[in-house]
Amino acid sequence: MTARCTLAAPARHEVIVKHSRFLAHACAIDDPAHATVFLDSVRQADASHHCWAWRIGTSYRTFDDGEPGGTAGRPILAAIDGQRCDRVMVVVLRWFGGIKLGAGGLVRAYGGAAAQCLRGASQRELVESVRAVLSCDFAHTGSVHLLLARFAAEKLDEAFDGHGVRMSIALPEEHLARLQAALADATRGQGRVVKQ
Question: Which of 18, 54, 97, 123 could be joined to 5 by an S-S link, Cβ 3.0–4.6 Å?
Fold first, then answer.
């Protein structure tokens, strides 16, 4: 199964269909609030429609902005899913050119503009990460920091007590078992990493 991707940088693509101008903007987003900020940043007062869709994991939203139901937002979402994108929003602006496109024409125009925009965008693979708690004796702190770098783990929090150091970390899920084994080796079985 192909890994899901998000965008490494914002992208745009423009197409003219029967004198109507369609301008697609795409951006990586973290949450619905970020989607709203992105929509506001690309909005143009003279555009006839601002249709959009976004997906974040299993959550998604679409908006047809006055176009016939299902002819704009859904095809944009289908383009996002078709490119196996996640944490992405696409906004397609339309300037009406005087010729009606019909439902099928609108679906092809909105979906096509979004798909072309995403195909031309710089993408990066999404890596599933997990949170864990790492604990070890003070004497092993230096080794632990080297292991964190080796397994692409990010230290989120660190606390010291009478038993040693305790860290909250985030790391790619695929590295968790290897970090656990390496930590056991480096600390002679005294260090532990427990998934939260």
Answer: 123
Taking the CA atoms of 75, 81, 83 and 87 in sequence, report the sign of the dihedral they define.
Answer: positive
Per-residue pLDDT of the chain (196 residues; tens, 9 = 90+): 356 899 999 999 999 999 999 999 999 998 999 999 999 999 999 999 999 999 998 899 999 999 999 999 999 999 999 999 999 999 999 999 999 999 999 999 999 999 999 999 999 887 777 888 998 888 888 888 889 888 888 888 888 888 888 989 888 888 888 989 999 888 888 888 888 8
Contact 132, 195 (CB under 8 A): yes
The DSSP line for 82-106 is HTTB-SEEEEEEEE--SS--HHHHH
Total number of domains constituting the chain = 2
Rounded to whole angstroms, the Cα distance separating 18 from 195 reads: 56
**Last residue of a domain, which of 125, 152, 170?**
125
What is the extent of the structural domain holding 83? 5-125
Nearest to 40 by CA among 25, 60, 22: 25
**Unique residue bearing structure tokens 């590295």:** 175
